[in-house]
Amino acid sequence: MPREGHFHAALHIFAYLQKHPDRILVMDCGYADHLRPLKKADYSQFYEFTKDELPSDMPTPLGKAVEFTMFVDASHAANVVTRQSRTGVLIFVNKAPIIWYSKKQNSVETSSFGSEFSALKTGVELLEGLRFKLRMMGVPIQGYCHTCVDNMSVVKNSSVPESQLKKKSNAVAYHYVRSRCAIDILRIEWIISDENLADVLTKIQPGPVRDRLIEHIMWKAKQNGKLALLI
């Protein structure tokens, strides 16, 4: 059953579309088609007994399975007053951008590695919640979530089982993310910053850069002879 507020949120969407008849609802981003398959790392030596536990009363999955793609970014020390970083997470289900998350981090990280790892931990928490919600609705899930991060140190520490964390302050996020990689909930890949779609959720972008990223998330097309953003 939908939770409180879901129905009203849907009504707001359709009211917006009714008020703006030149726009249509499109969720078909082709960006994820260019991502290459990722190889699963062997974590058996480090997280031997970790597994993805499913409730016994979970509905039987029906219909076509869905795939996940996640983009994670952090704007290190973006707050000029407190030097707190900002987390940005964008999660696609198939080609539809379902979760847009942009929030200031609670802690003050002294390095970009720390802020990026904290952002990745938040992204994995959001991903697990979304996976559970869809499973409780009887939606089958296909494979792992293809996760894109633009910090190479975070990628190596998360996806290479033999890597060791030298900063104890990030140990909780470090082991949480790695344990989720061990049960193949997600696999992490490095992506250049210019192609990280989560950048729109963490930084003030120049107009051309912002428009280019938004076009990868949501298409643009001509409606009634005018260029309209498809939301």
In short:
The protein has 231 residues and is α/β, with parallel strands linked by helices.
Fold and architecture overview:
This protein is of the alpha/beta class and 231 residues long. The protein has a domain of 157 residues: 2-Layer Sandwich (Nucleotidyltransferase, domain 5), CATH 3.30.420. 30% of the residues lie in helices and 21% in strands. It has five helices and seven strands; from the N terminus they run H-E-E-E-H-E-H-H-E-H-E-E. The strands form two sheets. The protein has a five-stranded mixed β-sheet. A two-stranded antiparallel ribbon has the order 6-7. Strand 6 and strand 7 form a beta hairpin. Helix 2 crosses helix 4. The chain starts with 5 loop residues before the first helix and ends with a strand. 28% of the residues are buried.
